[in-house]
Amino acid sequence: MPPVDMAQRTRLGAGLLQCPEAEVAARAAAMTPAERRNFSENISWLVDYETAEAEQGRAS
What we know:
By secondary structure, the protein is mainly α. It has one domain (about 5-60). Helix content is about 75%, strand content about 0%. The protein has helices at about 5-15, 25-30, 35-60. Helix 1 crosses helix 3 (about 35-60). The longest helix is centred in the last third of the chain and has 27 residues, at about 35-60.
């Protein structure tokens, strides 16, 4: 598993929450544990998707 790119995760989190990147941590902290787990899983899925897309682009 590649190292976690916090800037990428923050950018994706901001997109999911439809808020500025500066607000992501505070909004995540205000979530219930179940919401936070779901949010984290969604971000992980998006990171995997972006990584796969980038790798396909390099292979082309």
